[in-house]
Amino acid sequence: MLRVRSADGTRIALHEVGASDGPRVLMLHGFASSSQSNWVDAGWGRAFEEAGLRGIAMDLRGHGDSDKPRGENAYEVERFKEDVDAALEFIDAVPGEKIGCLGYSMGARLAYRYVGEEPGVFAALALGGLPAGEPFEDIDRQMADAALRGEVEPTGGTEFVVQLAKMLPEADPTTLLDLAFGVARTPFDPSVHPPVSPTLFMTGDKDDRADDTETMVPLLDDARFEPIPGRNHINAITSRKFKAGVIEFLQSHLG
CB within 8 A of 17, min separation 6: which ones? Predict the structure, then answer.
């Protein structure tokens, strides 16, 4: 593991996943997760190694081994884009090198936004569990904070965010709420700067958090959608079907 510094000084942790050489893929995990839990523990390291893909897994700010600054301002969308800039500076691609990007849930949303504004950086984009709207838009901060104190039972979207924020014992739930509300200041709109890179969307067919993923396909010039059978938003990440679909797609565009 190593850490790179983003534009605001936040240290971002990068982990090597998979093969020691071969085409490189930047990997962006989901909300309240980490490179370890989202990719390594879910078997992606072994799958990438067998496929000859070299993953560069980034712990998003507020997660894993990256810094966890306090306050919603530290988690606005532009800060995350600057973190990707720092990771790409580390990768330091040689001219003509094809780099892929794999994101899940919040990481997929970040990848979609980044690639849309920075065309040509990635040769292929694989996105899992990506809803077509802003999942953090309708959550209630007052309710969420009270729920963390055990004073109320959260409802609606707030319930799901609080549940995720408390899922991993090493996570800081208050920081994750700062993150959710900071990101929500710039609601996700897939019609704004859709990616031009070839894109694969995959979502569990039992995922009620991202059951509208396929509606984004017509917004892109080169995109397709594949369901992940029998999986929901939480357990899709371990699916062999998901891994196989992503690996086949990335190999076809990075080879």
Answer: 27, 35, 39, 40, 44, 45, 48, 54, 55, 56, 57
pLDDT at 95 over 80: no
Residue 22's domain spans which residues?
Answer: 2-136+187-254
Residue 179 in domain: no
Q: Does residue 39 belong to any structural domain of this protein?
A: yes
Q: What is the CATH number of the domain that holds 191?
A: 3.40.50.1820
Q: What pLDDT does residue 218 have?
A: 98
> Domain for residue 175, yes or no?
no
- Exposed, middle or buried by CB within 10 Å (0-12, 13-18, 19+), for 49? middle
Give the mean model confidence (pLDDT) for residues 207-233: 97
Contacts of 236 (CB under 8 A, 6+ apart): 128, 129, 202, 203, 204, 207, 228, 242
Tell me: pLDDT of 169 over 90: no
Matching residue, tokens 């995720």: 164
Q: What is the torsional sign of CA 16, 248, 196, 44?
A: negative
> Is 80 exceeded by the pLDDT of residue 93?
no
160 inside domain: no
Q: How many domains does the chain have?
A: 1
Q: Look at residue 228 in the predicted model and tell me its pLDDT.
A: 98
What percentage of the chain carries pLDDT values higher than 90? 89
